[in-house]
Amino acid sequence: MKKLITLLFLGGGLQAQELNFEVDLRSYQYDLTLTTSAPTEPYLDLEIPAWSPGYYQVMDFGKNFHDFHAYNEYGDTLRWIKFGHNTWRIYTSNTKELKVKYKVRAERNFVGTAFIDKERAFLKPSALFLHRKNEKDTPAQIHIHAPSEWTKVATGLDSLKAYTYYAKDVDILYDSPLLIGELKELPPFEIGGKKHRFLGYAMGTFDGLRLMNDLKKIISTAIELIGDIPYEHYTFIGLGPGNGGIEQLNSTAVAFTGQELEGPGRTRTLSFLTHEYFHHFNAKRIRPIELGPFDYSQPNRTNMLWVAEGLTAYYENIIMNRAGLLSAEEMKKAWSASIANFQKNPGRLKQTLAESSAKTWEDGPFGKKGETISYYEKGPLVGMLLDIRIRTATQNTRSLDDVMRYLYHEIYKKGNRGYTDAEFIKICEKYAGTPLDDIFQYVYSTKELDYAHYFRMIGIDLDENYQMTLRKDQTALQKKIYQDLFR
């Protein structure tokens, strides 16, 4: 017996210009059929994205497509050509309905692309589903035929009923991966009436309730920081052993096993999950203006991944500390280690932080060691100094938290857009009440970060190994800032 899993985008039957997919997984491979209305023009261009939301690398998904065929509503073969890496032109004269059949190779087990084997399928929509060129508002239906033993689905998509999901446009489609298989589900919890779930493959034996209790503390702390819950439900999608994670609109797909929660790995794993969760605020909603609406046909370059990624990394420790899962001493040690690690990289004298963001499409998210830098490394360090600078300039009445809240509530929610480079600087200076050229020079130049100067502002000395020591002459204001940062 096989199971039909239906994902309905907007529900109902095929509508004008709707994308209607059939995905057959019963042979443990991707066999896809797309049905859509033909245009009034003599041809229709179908595209697969060049990259995926949240992973800023050109992926060339089109190279995995094969056995591509196109038909009209009568089953007659239609002529087509492929040009570039990701576009198929179907000639549709005298055609009302178009049907395209194709297969997709998916052997690479990686969070950034689709994968399938005998035990589960990870559906990465941007690696599987074609869209009508320049028609991102198009709704879609997806029907998935899965093996009967694959009884659970992990996804951020809304559910209409069992195995029935929907979204309203291509952006939501491409930002909503699914994991289907023999999955384990951890005890869910609610915050503000919003359900939070964690489902995963090959998670192993561990204390799932403890993990979910910790995640509830983390998520509650992040929500308190920003002051809003922008989703109706949120799902952690555990992909099993591996590396990496990618944030999505109201979910995250992460390499995860319960063994990683044992011993010293627990803090590292919780920090990783904190990072991916906080991205739904910072990167998905608080975002550089270049990162939404997306152009899926080419790299979307921005100088501001040091904010989207770097400040998210900075807030890992902040949120963990405020949630009671990272002590002040552990937090200081983590900062010291981050500084020491970055200072070992000769690339810090060769590439600016802004350049590392714009050139990530060539250099990779972690840069080229010794030649370039990573915004994951320098970004949180600049964020740390920026936070200290705002706090000291305002007698600790303002902080980077205020900047993040403004970006979320005023730019994203009210403005329904991303921020520009200049706006980010302006907002930071608004809350600091003073120019911040001393900080932003570290973004647009390769000048060495003067850690000692800024830590002295809050009564902390750094030794030659960047270890932190409280000064005996720490003032009342410095102590207040210190205690607010290291709780």
From TrEMBL:
InterPro entries: Peptidase_M4/M1_CTD_sf (IPR027268), Peptidase_M61_catalytic (IPR007963), Peptidase_M61_N (IPR040756). SUPFAM superfamilies: Metalloproteases ('zincins'), catalytic domain. Residues 25-182 form the Peptidase M61 N-terminal domain. Gene3D superfamilies: 2.60.40.3650, Neutral Protease Domain 2. Residues 269-382 form the Peptidase M61 catalytic domain. It comes from the Bacteria. This is Peptidase M61 domain protein. It comes from Leadbetterella byssophila (strain DSM 17132 / JCM 16389 / KACC 11308 / NBRC 106382 / 4M15). The lineage of its organism: Bacteria, Pseudomonadati, Bacteroidota, Cytophagia, Cytophagales.
